[in-house]
Amino acid sequence: MKTHTLNEVQDKIIGEIGTPNREQFEYELQMDLIGQAIKQTRQERKLTQEELGKLIGVQKAQISRIENNTSNVTIETLLRVFNALQAKVKFQVELPHFKINLGQ
Description:
By secondary structure, the protein is mostly helical. It contains five helices and two strands, in the order H-H-H-H-H-E-E. The chain has a single domain (about 5-104), classed as 434 Repressor (Amino-terminal Domain) (Orthogonal Bundle), CATH 1.10.260. Strands 1-2 form a two-stranded antiparallel ribbon. Helix 3 packs across helix 4 and helix 3 (about 50-55) crosses helix 5.
């Protein structure tokens, strides 16, 4: 029986790094992880979705969608959520001739 590495399985099933399918998979995975982190932190701070929504000016349903990765969310909304949860945020964009570092 031949064994395979996780990377080999991902390349075969999802697609190799750089392909559209793999990029979409990686994006969705990152958004799921962000949603889980927001939910866990919100619960640790003993906030309901409704209370967090009121802190940032959105409905409870929007917080639920963010936590469950069921809708597109703007960077502005994510930053407001992180700010309300007192999270330290570092944001970096690198282009060939341009680099931006933003922090909260």
